[in-house]
């Protein structure tokens, strides 16, 4: 019989969370590869909005789902950790209830190991709760913790998570490392002599229901923004063959009827002529009615007339541009990823084929060390004037980034010893009246969006 593994996507514990095409893509890739290596994989997705047991128990707050597979998660209000007790916001566990999680774990009789992933550093309470519960049920089964929190806060995870092994960056890119570890920790593990080629597609089929599929056409990013962990977390920049990517889309569309696809790329449009344009031309030739989404944002500097045309015709519904700020000095400090006039040019190019104001969003950063309220307010206003809509993106300080030391220096919280303080809701590096000013800025952005929507 094939050895069983439990793979867990843990809960989010936070003041707010929204499902913007959020799937544990790294874990699903890993699941697929581990299956190919000969394991029986049981996925427990704590964020599963379609978990049938949740429906069965009639949980009072059924999550509202919105367009194209986005929407709310299940949630239960929980006490705030003591470190966040003064924050005037409700704190919640997002996802299924612990009781249902326990039922799911108990269904798997003799797993050889339990793999837990992790995302934001300040969501670790969900990781810890999952580890504690699985250890109660399967006390002798090794628990292996990986993912982003484990990579960025390895020391914290090793000291506090109670996982048997914490392996930074094991993700989809190094499944053999994980395989070797499993062989090492389970001496009587049946050793596979010959490994089959790894499956290229993530195991979305393990989810209860597939609303959409997340795609990775490239990994890593050629830029190196001082606030971003991509250079540390992701392997060196690499890209998949565009036609092979198109094959994947065809597979999901034909076998699973999927029409919505969300790109998880950090730099989707880099060298577009040789990469994403080739893929999009394939989509156009196929005449399939597909929809594409880019929650991570697109680089302004790469938007020209041709790519704007292709994005529109191929079925992109919402464009998100990484504007960050219009403040000249701050823009330079953040890596100057586009030149003067390029944002305006990008909006013009996007509108030409038919994108409306409402469909062109620009991410505006708030809460960077040294940033002021006026700088953010001016940027928000500017976005509206240019004919796009602003989305406020709160800065979260991240270990191993270039900006980390400065963040530690200016923050009113002890960022180094407590990852809970990396939470972007509390704007840890903002010197002003956090909740008053942030609420005003968000309202400014919302007003511009409402106006664009009602036009
Ligand atoms: S913020 Fe975006 S552009 Fe900058 S390094 Fe990260 S992924 Fe790349």
Structure characterization notes:
The structure is a single chain. This protein has 455 residues and is α/β, with parallel strands linked by helices. It folds into two domains: 4-185, Cobalamin-binding domain (Rossmann fold, 3-Layer(aba) Sandwich), CATH 3.40.50.280; 212-454, Aldolase class I (TIM Barrel, Alpha-Beta Barrel). Helix content is 36%, strand content 15%. It contains 16 helices and 16 strands. It has helices at 25-36, 52-57, 98-107, 124-137, 148-152, 154-160, 175-185, 230-233, 242-256, 276-286, 305-314, 328-333, 342-351, 373-386, 404-410, 434-454, and strands spanning 4-9, 12-14, 40-45, 75-77, 92-94, 111-116, 143-145, 165-166, 213-215, 218-219, 238-239, 260-263, 291-293, 316-324, 360-366, 389-394. The strands form four sheets. A six-stranded parallel β-sheet has the order 9-12-13-14-15-16. Strands 3-1-6-7-8 form a five-stranded parallel β-sheet, with helices on both faces. The protein has a three-stranded antiparallel β-sheet with strand order 2-5-4. α4 links the parallel β6 and β7. α3 (98-107) crosses α4 and α9 (242-256) runs parallel beside α10. The longest helix is centred in the last third of the chain and has 21 residues, at 434-454. The chain is globular. It starts with a strand and ends with a helix. The relative contact order is 0.10. The mean pLDDT is 92. Iron/sulfur cluster is lined by residues 221, 223-225, 228, 230, 266-267. The site of iron/sulfur cluster has 8 residues, from loops.
